[in-house]
Amino acid sequence: MIKIIDLHKSFGAQEVLRGVNLEIPKGKITFIMGQSGQGKSVLLKHIIGLIRPDSGQILVDGLDITGLSLKELYRVRKRFGMLFQDAALFDSMTVAENVAFPLREHTRLSETEIAKKVEEKLALVGLLEAADKLPSELSGGMRKRAGLARALALDPEIILFDEPTTGLDPIMTASINRLIKESQQRHQLTCVVISHDIPSALTIADKIAMLHQGVIIEEGDPESIKSSSHPFVRRFFEGVAEEEGGIS
Ligand SMILES: Nc1ncnc2c1ncn2[C@@H]1O[C@H](COP(=O)(O)OP(=O)(O)OP(=O)(O)O)[C@@H](O)[C@H]1O
């Protein structure tokens, strides 16, 4: 389980996280939702230790990662996979080489074992036939799937998704959602998904947390979030611009 306790982070005078408290249950899919610029990506980067907070704690199975040395953090990070918003593939490497990259960096597997793993992960995301293509030859959805195969390469326990379905058509969105759900069910993965995509959250989330003005204002299962009485949450789910309601 990941437990975030009273997390604060400012950039200069801009206070982005103002005391975030959140529990992310093991083996479940948790969506962190909220408007653009509310600090969702900043929160995600704290969870993987890419940003250090000004104060507060992030407990990963009881271990506070905020005070770890880089070497210790590196060890914890091996338990995490991350699918970045733009998939962050290496442009000059083929899809297969991209998936092999973390295995070459972090394991001592032989080339035969690496090839086997790459094939397994590409099959999982339905990209075997694209193994030798360059990222520039892929569609947006295929790039996301290649990014997912790479994120799964080291068999992580926890996987962080930064807007996995943004910019995808409904069919590709459904396919990415199915992959997230399948990975979670097959490997008891803990999934943390940053998203604005309400239909996806209502389809696959076990838990939804709403980040607004630097704090979690509501959390619960999709049904309870849908019926939330919090004015911002209601407007977010109803798709009404904040300015129109004058919510603070
Ligand atoms: N390294 C940084 N240095 C300075 N400011 C930053 C940094 N990273 C993020 N910010 C600021 O923090 C705020 C929150 O950014 P963040 O990307 O977390 O928002 P978000 O909720 O993920 O938005 P979106 O949904 O549009 O991706 C923004 O105002 C951003 O400019």
Automatic annotation (TrEMBL):
- Which one Pfam family would you cite for this protein? ABC_tran
Alphabetized, the UniProt keywords read: ATP-binding, Nucleotide-binding, Transport
Q: Can you tell me where the transmembrane regions are?
A: none
* Signal peptide residues on this chain, from the entry's feature table: none
Keyword match Transport: yes
In alphabetical order, the GO MF annotations are:
ATP binding; ATP hydrolysis activity
Extract the InterPro entries matched here: AAA+_ATPase (IPR003593), ABC_transporter-like_ATP-bd (IPR003439), ABC_transporter-like_CS (IPR017871), P-loop_NTPase (IPR027417)
Q: What is this protein called?
A: ABC transporter ATP-binding protein
